[in-house]
Write a structure and sequence with these properties.
The complex is a heterodimer.
Chain A: H1 5-63, H2 69-94, H3 101-114, H4 121-142, E1 155-162, E2 170-176, E3 181-186, E4 191-197, E5 205-206, H5 212-221, H6 229-242, E6 254-261, E7 267-278, H7 284-288, H8 292-295, E8 298-304, E9 310-315
Parallel strand pairs in A: 5-6
Antiparallel strand pairs in A: 1-2, 2-3, 3-4, 4-9, 6-7, 7-8, 8-9
Chain B: H1 2-8, E1 10-13, E2 22-25, E3 31-34, H2 44-47, H3 56-61, E4 68-72, H4 84-98, H5 105-115, E5 125-129
Parallel strand pairs in B: 3-4
Antiparallel strand pairs in B: 1-2, 4-5
Chain lengths: 324, 137
């Protein structure tokens, strides 16, 4: 019996549907195995890096007592390697890669080694990761500073000192390897960046005994100044407002351009400006008294005339988050 | 005091009878911190070439070498039961020296007061001259 045209079409359809399903299933199975192989290769890499990091950790703990320069140099190198390892693991985490137990344990050990929170460990660690770093990041974004790397491999130094006199809160400092320096003040609940410095701009030079080349280089700096007093003041005011201060709470701003000075009263301008605001309750008499508690009721901002960036900020003895 | 003044060669005569103040510094100091009782209350600042009556901004306005004086304006106490003033001073030095290119005198004082608000026990820390002086200066 000869199949009809309809039956042939049906048979062909069933054949191709089967073929397609087969291809899909085998493709899926193949893909799964390829994914497994890639993951295994990654895991092997992780294990190898973890073993190396563990070796470095072991070595570091053994030479901790060392004080000679040679050992110090080796320790610096090893610290660098541990920082890189931490950075790699954090990157892998961000990418959603699966990490084996040994890698995670080594990561924790390396992090604990480089960031030892010895006093009130949990409290310090929580403050460091949950308060300090986010506050510093927010400060950078708010003031439109160039993007800063807050990864663990870019943490230079840090210090947290909880108050010992019954008050809640602490003071803290953070220095990034890129140079940025932050000072924090916390009342136990709130935290703020109370001072900041870009860590690289020198706004005063004493050139009494400087060679001619250095004097010429410093003199040339002001040729790059793009601001005048009025524009610099507006720029500083913009940071002042961004940082949450209100002009009505302060006396008029006091501005001066930075300068260098040499022997025999030789001097010249630098392309930087310092602006200070004293709070309205700081009278002339109080300022003249020299009492630093009065002088500290103020805000000081330094800006660059070269690229208009915020060089430094310091808020004196004012409440967290407000002027009064 | 006059011995010290003549030894250091820094003279300051306040304005009197229409004559302007006379300020001569042959040996001005960059930084002075006299950590003891009443050191800010007398004329030590003048003896070290950092007169009280010369505002810090005057050094900036006239482009002079930066200089600063610190001294307690009254009687302070040091005892085994009251170490806050000593802690204040330690905190000041710790902050000022640990960041010699970024921490100013006034910022370091701020840090000391934040950590030890009762430092000085009510006695003012009298500060004259440039508040923005750095250790590196």
């Amino acid at each position: 019996m000869t199949p009809t045209k309809k039956q042939r079409l049906l048979a062909l359809s069933v054949f191709f549907a089967g073929l397609l399903a087969g291809l899909l299933i085998s493709g899926g199975i193949g893909g799964y195995f390829i994914w497994r192989i890639v993951n295994v290769l990654h895991l092997q890499q992780d294990l190898s890096a973890a073993s190396e990091a563990q070796t470095v950790l072991l070595y570091m703990k053994r030479v901790d007592w060392g004080t000679t320069n040679a050992i110090a140099k080796l320790q610096d190198d090893s610290r660098e390697r541990l920082s890189e390892y931490i950075h790699d693991v954090e990157q892998s985490k961000k990418e959603g890669r699966k990490l084996d137990e040994m890698t995670l344990e080594t990561y924790q050990a390396a992090r604990a080694y480089l960031f030892p929170f010895t006093f009130g460990e949990k409290r310090e660690e929580d403050f460091f990761w949950k308060k300090m770093l986010p506050s510093a990041q927010e400060f950078v974004e708010r003031n439109k500073l160039p993007a800063a790397d807050f990864g663990t491999n870019n943490i230079g130094k840090y210090r947290i000192e909880f108050f010992q006199d019954g008050r809640a809160g602490c003071t803290a400092n953070l220095k990034l390897k890129s140079g940025l320096i932050f000072t924090f003040l916390s009342d136990g609940t709130n935290v703020e960046v109370s001072a900041f410095s870009d860590g690289r701009t020198k706004t005063y030079y004493e050139l009494d005994s400087a060679p001619k080349e250095e004097m010429d280089a410093v003199k040339a700096l002001n040729l790059r100044n793009k601001l005048n007093d009025a524009i610099a003041l507006e720029l500083a005011k913009s940071f002042f407002v961004l940082l949450g201060h209100k002009e009505e709470n302060f006396h008029p701003a006091e501005l001066h351009q930075s300068y260098w000075v040499g022997q025999n009263d030789v001097w010249g301008n630098l392309p930087y400006y310092e602006v200070t605001w004293y709070r309205t309750d700081v009278t002339k008499e109080k300022r003249e008294s020299g009492d630093s508690k009065e002088l500290l009721k103020s805000v000081t901002i330094e800006v660059s005339g070269i690229d208009s960036h915020l060089i430094s900020y310091s808020k004196g003895l004012l409440p967290i988050g407000s002027d009064f | 005091m006059s011995d010290l003044t003549s030894l250091l060669g820094n003279q300051y005569l306040p304005a009197k009878n229409g004559d302007p103040a006379l300020f001569t510094t042959t040996k001005p100091f960059d930084f002075v911190f006299l950590d003891g009782c009443m050191t800010g209350a007398g004329s030590f600042p003048e003896a070290f070439g950092i007169p009280k009556s010369v505002a810090g901004s005057s050094y900036d306005d006239n482009h002079k070498h930066k200089r600063a004086f610190m001294g307690w304006g009254g009687t302070i106490s040091y005892s085994i039961l009251d170490t806050e003033t000593m802690n204040w001073s330690l905190s000041f030095w710790n902050v000022w020296l640990s960041n010699p290119t970024t921490e100013t005198v006034i910022r370091s004082q701020n840090a000391a007061y934040s950590a030890h608000p009762s430092g000085g026990d009510g006695v003012p820390m009298d500060t004259y001259g440039n508040l923005s002086l750095l250790w590196n200066n």
